[in-house]
Amino acid sequence: MKYIIGIGGVTNGGKTTLTNKLIQTLPNCCVVHQDDFFKKPDQIEVGEDGFRQWDVITAMDMEAMTNTIKGWMENPAKFARSHGVTLAPVPDVANPDEHIHILIVEGFLLYNYPPLLEVFNKCYYIAIPYEECKRRRSTRQYTVPDPPGLFDGHVWPMYLKHRKQMEDSGLNIEYLNGLKSKEEIYNQVYEDIQNNLLNSL
């Protein structure tokens, strides 16, 4: 059985932290990080707001990301081996459909790219309020540092715009409170995934 989990949400909401905890505990679990598909800085346009448009879907090579996910869907075991993921042994008599392969897709604009909306079995979205998001963002070191005013001038307005688009898409999304402790969020999601997997068998 193949099961694809989306972990979306606001920048600095805790997506990667949650993903890293889940891949350590879920069986046969691979991950695709949307951040790995950013285009090179010189390919990022400058918008009307005067900032390079990092927080829009065109800043990423979404076709390459979709193809990576399709590669996992076609052969999760091969994908896992090529990404250094250790697979659980398959019992000789096991029905292949009962052998679970999990893919976590993590990113801040997961649910804004129509070709991907159909692939998710479960969608989570971590949200935190403006003040907390701005505080966390200010403590992060990025390869390309944030220019002054980027958060208020580009990052947060784009977040609000894309969140509305996502909500209007009709996708069934479970919202997570990013102000809860990392442990609480992990426990909530892990338990939910386990229940969903049991119900899917």
What report would you give on this structure?
There is one protein chain. The protein has 201 residues and is of the alpha/beta class. The protein has a 5-stranded parallel β-sheet, sandwiched between helices. The chain has 7 helices and 5 strands. 41% of the residues lie in helices and 15% in strands.
Order of helices and strands: EHEHHEHEHHEH
Quote the distance from N terminus to C terminus: 8 Å
Mean model confidence by pLDDT: 91
Structural class: alpha/beta
Helix content: 40-55%
Got a strand count?
A: 5
The parts where pLDDT drops under 50 for at least 5 residues are: none
Order of adjacent strands in the largest pleated sheet: 2-3-1-4-5
- Rg estimate, integer Å: 18 Å
Shape: globular
